[in-house]
Amino acid sequence: DVKVTQSSRYLVKRTGEKVFLECVQDMDHENMFWYRQDPGLGLRLIYFSYDVKMKEKGDIPEGYSVSREKKERFSLILESASTNQTSMYLCASSALARGSTDTQYFGPGTRLTVL
Amino acid sequence: DAKTTQPNSMESNEEEPVHLPCNHSTISGTDYIHWYRQLPSQGPEYVIHGLTSNVNNRMASLAIAEDRKSSTLILHRATLRDAAVYYCILRDVNGGADGLTFGKGTHLIIQP
């Protein structure tokens, strides 16, 4: 069974803290994604990566950075957390470039609260 | 990606079939129709996808109109565990690797 795991289900941090959200997939997928989900706004893409050490900005990259040192692991970093980054963060992975019928597999999400 | 339109919510009874519609009048010839769903407090999960022909898998069926401007996700016998938000998404097979564009989806309510 395919599996995407995220390091925490719930996280509470203070404004200004550096926050790391970790995502691991065990399917040997090339592509990995970070989204955030907010009520009324749906899912929005923050960053994605199609290979180790490669990254591409999504729709809302400001205030975030990412790291992909190994194929199975994709980290989202909030350099200095702010209250407007309180959200549900979802990681996903997929096997193929979109030049095919790619399917994305999602993790359970991390609900981050920034106080 | 081309735009899709879905009803905000639908209600059905347990153990009855559910038909979830999606309109995509600007679909292009290279767009696949994908369906995902998101159960409460979980990440989205893939349900089914198709191009032109109707598709069946263990979770659902996908019926695609002949002109491809609409499609219907069919849950043959809904259970309480099918209560979720269902998203219809178009994916261009010629596009590069990038994220999914989720709309607001249809909130499916199942009554016992």
Offer a concise description of the structure.
By secondary structure, chain A is mainly β.
What does this structure look like?
The complex is a heterodimer of chains A (115) and B (112). With 115 residues, chain A is an all-beta fold. Chain A is built from no helices and 11 strands. In chain A, the strands form 2 sheets. In chain A, strands 2, 4, 5, 6, 9, 10 and 11 form a 7-stranded mixed beta sheet that branches. In chain A, strands 1-3-8-7 form a 4-stranded antiparallel beta sheet, with no helix packed on it. With 112 residues, chain B is mainly β. Chain B is built from no helices and 9 strands. In chain B, the strands form 2 sheets. Chain B has a 5-stranded mixed beta sheet, with no helix packed on it. The N and C termini of chain B lie far apart (37 Å). The chains are: A mainly beta (115), B mainly beta (112). Chains A and B meet through strand 4, strand 5, strand 9 and strand 10 of A and strand 3 and strand 4 of B.
Mind sketching the topology for me?
The complex is a heterodimer of chains A (115) and B (112).
Chain A: E1 4-6, E2 10-13, E3 19-25, E4 31-38, E5 42-49, E6 56-57, E7 65-70, E8 73-78, E9 87-94, E10 105-106, E11 110-114
Parallel strand pairs in A: 2-11
Antiparallel strand pairs in A: 1-3, 3-8, 4-5, 4-9, 5-6, 7-8, 9-10, 9-11
Chain B: E1 9-13, E2 18-23, E3 31-38, E4 45-50, E5 55-56, E6 61-64, E7 70-75, E8 84-92, E9 106-111
Parallel strand pairs in B: 1-9
Antiparallel strand pairs in B: 2-7, 3-4, 3-8, 5-6, 6-7, 8-9
Radius of gyration of chain A: 13 Å
Q: Calculate the terminal CA-CA distance of chain A, rounded to whole Å.
A: 37 Å
Globally, the shape of chain B reads globular
Distance between the termini of chain B: 37 Å
Largest sheet strand order of chain B? 1-9-8-3-4
Query: Largest interface here, residues on each chain?
Result: A-B, 31 and 24 residues
The amount of helix of chain B comes to: under 10%
Strand content of chain B: over 45%
Q: What order do the SSEs of chain B take from the amino end to the carboxyl end, as H and E?
A: EEEEEEEEE
Supply the helix-strand structural class of chain A. Answer: mainly beta
Number of helices of chain A: 0
User: Mean pLDDT of chain A, as a whole number?
Assistant: 92
H-E order of chain A: EEEEEEEEEEE
Largest beta sheet of chain A, briefly? Answer: 7 strands, mixed
